[in-house]
Amino acid sequence: MIDFTLTEDQELIRRTARDFAENEIRPVAERVDAMAEGGDTWAIVRPVFEQAAELGFTTFYIPEPFGGSGRSPMDGAIFIEEIAAVDIGIAMTLGATMGYPMFILAAGTDEQKQQFLPALCDGELHILAGAQSEPDVAGSELFCTDADPALGMRTRARRDGDEYVLNGSKSAFITNAGIADHYFIVARTDLARPQADTLSLFYVPAGTPGLHVGRRTHMLGMKTGHHAELRLEDVRVPALNLIGGEGAALGILSTVLGQGLGAPFVGLARAAYRYALDYARQRRSWGKPLIEHQAIALMLADMEMHVRAARLLTWDSVHAAERFDPSMTLKAMAAKAYAVDVAIRTTQNAVKVLGAYGVSREYKAAKYLCDAMMGYALDFTGDLLRIRMAAQLP
Ligand SMILES: Cc1cc2nc3c(=O)[nH]c(=O)nc-3n(C[C@H](O)[C@H](O)[C@H](O)COP(=O)(O)OP(=O)(O)OC[C@H]3O[C@@H](n4cnc5c(N)ncnc54)[C@H](O)[C@@H]3O)c2cc1C
What we know:
By secondary structure, the chain is of the alpha+beta class. It has helices spanning 8-34, 41-54, 73-86, 88-99, 101-107, 110-120, 195-198, 249-257, 263-282, 294-322, 328-353, 365-377, 382-390, and strands spanning 128-131, 156-160, 163-175, 182-188, 199-205, 211-216, 227-238, 242-243, 284-285, 288-289. Helices cover 49% and strands 15% of the residues. The radius of gyration is 21 Å and the shape is globular.
């Protein structure tokens, strides 16, 4: 029997995250939203992350013996929902930074754990990024299990003595590219064999010669986030920086799916729902509050229902991942796809509840909708997740 009653400690995590989000993140997010496109948003956002690092949020999952906060994936889902309910762009940057050390924990050797993890826990800010996707050849193709070696990723990692040499390019959408201190980069160790057997994961410090960050990509939503492309020209890393061995990347990436990728979208949907609810209670039409018109009331009841369902699916998937239950991958894909669907539907309905104000920049409903639409393709599209699920249905 699953019991999702939060422990006292988890209630504390929730309150701490909520206070941090309200007091520190909200003012910064509002400043960024008011900025013209092209401004240096990271200069405004970075101090929040410096505070987050001091408070141990950026090293959330790294076990205490390495200097981290030693929190569980369920703690993380609770934490990130609260951050995303105030600003999902910051939640995604923070979530990536919190989550990527899981790669080293899941697949790293003792030597790699000792070398890389304590260095991330020195109290300084270390932003992390993960780069798999590539323009035209490696978006949804990352899930392609076709044996044709010509299909899929083209970035190549060639062994040269005690080093690997990486060449290729990554898509314009890499979260945290340009602000990251360390990158987890997926490259193929053999282009003559099928992609699925040759994808390999490398830990690459920013500033490594040959690792170039392209122009920042300006997105419709998650304005506090930072996305850009990467180019790799003879990027040399020690062989020690290969995590999990050659060909291990797909298995390692799937561990990330267990971390509650639905949680930020539950937070976003909840925020849009509360925003629409407040508006519907205060705006009067035909002599009574909007919420007393049944068409509006039904939308709001649906929002409440779907947000709760998305949270339960997310928590259930995290619960399965914490126990390495065989259902964990299926549940994780379902939770991510469903939470994004709920965020999109809820934010669309919030726009409707606000009428013309819903599409005005003065109000937040349209911003929430743009943020939600970003979720569809991020970490694999909703359709691709369904296709993968269909292949594993019990
Ligand atoms: C906000 C955001 C953040 C991101 N952050 C990162 C990051 O940090 N690191 C990273 O590596 N990447 C990142 N990405 C890239 C993301 O992983 C890819 O965009 C995603 O995998 C989809 O690839 P694509 O954009 O090439 O779309 P495509 O693969 O071209 O898909 C386009 C459409 O076709 C459909 N489609 C494609 N192939 C099939 C098929 N075989 N069957 C049925 N339908 C199909 C898709 O569902 C979609 O609707 C990010 C993307 C976004 C939007």
